[in-house]
Amino acid sequence: MDLLSLLTDLHADGARQGPGSPAATLQALALARAAGLSEGPLKMADLGCGTGASTTVLATALRGSLTALDLIPAFLARLEANLARLDTQATVSLLEGDMNAPPFEAGALDLLWSEGAIYNLGFRQGLQAWRPLLKLGGFLAVSELTWLTATRPSALTAHWEAAYPEVGTAGAKLQVLEEEGFRPVGYFPLGPDSWLENYYHPLEARFPAFLTRHAGEAAAEALIAEERAEIALYRTHQEFVSYGFYIAQRRA
Ligand code: SAH
């Protein structure tokens, strides 16, 4: 099996595919509301939605239309099943597609959401691709790998700089937002519960069945070894690194 199929198989049963929590999604939404996000109805998108951890929270909390977009059909199928059990306020459309070129007209969106996914484009590139889709004054809410301190253990720096060269402090990320035509209105770092209880613990619980399904596949064993190493690195260094949630408004 190729790596994308293995990743899909490992993650499709998860409630989420990256760090976060319903409380963090609601906290980011509260910051947007405090800065003037209207009660709607709103035109919204959740890009790189995965199985829809944030989509379901937003669709429950907000009125309007919400397009949830992801590359992987198996994730969207899981989201569709989850939505069928929920009483949502917003109308949700699922879309298989590339978040580098989402099919919205210029200036169409009141709210653009993306948790743990903008890194696929790169933070600056993602902001450049997404800014034109927002109305003037429209809100962006994204989570992104962030250093919590100016200095940190060199092994941690080396790992993430190799895996994601754009990793930076919140100060640096806020500056990129400002440079790319946004007015930041809020930032907070995700707490350890967003990594451990909500993401890594359920992921670890799926390892044994996954390894049984893929017995004898070197690529599957290598993938789990890599996931275990990343989890161990986070456990050791959690005071230095997290995801930051950034809430910002498109300016003229
Ligand atoms: N937002 C979800 C998923 C985060 S994982 C959560 O917080 O749980 C990142 C997601 O981005 C995955 O679902 C992956 O399939 C999706 N993705 C990666 N590259 C993409 C692209 N170019 N276009 C659309 N989705 C993409």
Please provide a written account of the structure.
- There is one protein chain.
- The chain has 252 residues and is of the alpha/beta class.
- The chain has one domain: Vaccinia Virus protein VP39 (Rossmann fold, 3-Layer(aba) Sandwich), CATH 3.40.50.
- It contains nine helices and eight strands.
- It has helices at residues 3-11, 22-34, 53-61, 73-84, 123-130, 154-163, 170-179, 192-213, 218-237; strands spanning 42-47, 64-70, 91-96, 109-114, 134-147, 168-169, 182-189, 241-250.
- Residues 16-18, 20, 48-50, 53-54, 69-72, 75, 98-100, 115-117, 120 line the site of S-adenosyl-L-homocysteine.
List the main descriptive attributes of the protein structure presented here:
eight-stranded mixed β-sheet, alpha/beta
Q: What order do the helices and strands come in, and which of them pair?
A:
Layout: H1 3-11, H2 22-34, E1 42-47, H3 53-61, E2 64-70, H4 73-84, E3 91-96, E4 109-114, H5 123-130, E5 134-147, H6 154-163, E6 168-169, H7 170-179, E7 182-189, H8 192-213, H9 218-237, E8 241-250
Helix pairs in contact: 2-3, 8-9
Residues 16-18, 20, 48-50, 53-54, 69-72, 75, 98-100, 115-117, 120 line the site of S-adenosyl-L-homocysteine.
Average pLDDT rating? 97
Count of all domains: 1
* Number of helical regions: 9
Uncertain segments are none
- Give the terminus-to-terminus CA distance: 47 Å
Shape: globular
Beta-strand portion reads 15-25%
